[in-house]
Design brief:
The chain is mainly β and 388 residues long. The chain is built from 1 helix and 28 strands.
């Protein structure tokens, strides 16, 4: 009885021994005939590192073969030295299937982390060759070198890009010329497509595109905002809107004055202020302003704190000959003996008949002399100039 039981145990041993455990790591790809009960082997060196080999065939005639679809897992990774890359010709998804059409989709939270003491030692980098990624071409002007864009789920699908920024070449690159600018894109409320909104240029200048509004409020009519629909009129001269994007109605002269006109952005003023500090003005007072541009005087106007009277003289002198307000009597009379600015028992006055005036404005000092003031404690007088 015991003999038969022992014989059954020994007969069963080969059946259990056919179940192999573990994978043998090898440096050379196995080939040729092999026992059908041999352990699987994985190649750990060379360009096909990571390839899994198993005995394939019908016992007792097996040979080494690569595990392929239908019999195991296809290896989509290629190892080179200490590096590894995905050799799949399609796209890759981590945490989800790749659905964006791009090379890599990552679903779930991600962390870019470094094990070094400096937490900023690593960062994202983008590399680009040529305007179309040519292997031997330098980056061309207008080429998008890299950037970050974002899209969201709109209830039925992922949107196209709805915001982000790009680094763009602003010249054809050489060994010594690598100009770039940062372009920022946003999507306005109630729309579904992003738009080019702001740029940081190569020299470091920040620019908002025409029609964009600079300010904290979301209302484009907020008077605390600065309308960026402006244009440069010349040296130190800018025209900009009055709070409504695209409607440029005001002008700033950084050099000397601020003036406004709804139809002509070139209208400017040369302004003079006479202030008695709360007391009535008296005597003769001269004020001079340096005018660094050319143009034509087209008129003048006066405003005061209250009804009163005053007369004015207007003279000019070259920068090199200017000796201060004390030299006023020796300067050229701009009025040419014609009608000078005058306020007569009124709060304001204006005049456009400049017969005999030397109306051509050149880069000079222009002086205004107040005389015979009555009643007023402050008064302003302006020469209206059409700048050229």
């Amino acid at each position: 009885m015991y003999k038969y039981l022992l014989a059954l145990i020994f007969l069963a041993i080969p059946a259990f021994a056919q179940t192999n455990v573990g994978i043998q790591l090898v440096n050379t790809a196995p080939s040729g005939a092999v026992s059908c009960r041999a352990q699987p082997r994985m190649l750990v060196s060379g360009t096909t590192a990571g390839t899994l080999y198993t005995p394939q065939g019908t016992s007792p005639s097996c040979t080494w073969g690569v595990v392929a679809n239908g019999s195991g897992v296809t290896n989509y990774w290629t190892k080179t030295s200490n590096d590894i890359n995905n050799n799949n010709t399609g796209n890759v998804g981590i945490g989800c299937a790749p659905t964006s059409g791009e090379k890599l989709d990552i679903c779930g939270a991600q962390t870019l982390q470094t094990a070094t003491a400096n937490p900023f030692a690593y960062h994202w980098e983008s590399f680009k060759r040529g305007n179309n990624g040519g292997a031997t071409n330098a980056v061309a002007t207008g080429s998008e070198i890299g950037g970050f864009t974002a899209a969201g789920w709109n209830g039925s699908a992922y949107t196209v890009t709805t915001g982000g920024f790009l680094t763009v070449a602003c010249e054809n690159w050489t060994l010594t010329a690598n100009c770039t600018r940062m372009q920022f894109y946003t999507t306005p409320a109630g729309t579904s497509g992003d738009q080019y909104s702001m740029a940081l240029t190569g020299p470091g200048d920040l620019g908002l595109l025409s029609g964009r509004v600079l300010g904290l409020s979301s209302s484009s009519s907020d008077p605390t905002q600065i309308d960026t629909a402006f244009s440069r009129l010349g040296a130190n001269r800018f025209a900009f809107g009055n709070g409504t994007p695209g409607n440029a109605t005001a002008e700033i002269d950084v050099g000397s004055c601020i003036g406004c006109n709804s139809t002509n952005q070139n209208i400017r003023t040369i302004g003079y202020n006479f202030d008695g500090g709360g007391s009535a003005l008296s005597g003769t007072i001269t004020r001079c302003v340096r005018v660094p541009y050319a143009g034509t005087i087209t008129g003048w106007y006066i405003d005061a704190d209250q009804s009163g009277s005053a007369t004015f003289g207007v003279r000019s002198v070259a920068f090199a000959s200017y000796t201060g307000s004390a030299g006023y009597s020796g300067y050229t009379d701009v009025t040419g003996g014609g009608t000078a600015p005058v306020l007569s028992s009124a709060v304001t006055a204006t005049f456009a008949n400049l017969t005999s005036w030397a109306t051509a404005v050149t880069a000079k000092e222009y002086c205004m002399q107040l005389s015979s003031p009555a009643t007023v404690t402050w008064i302003n007088v302006y020469l209206i100039v059409s700048a050229s």
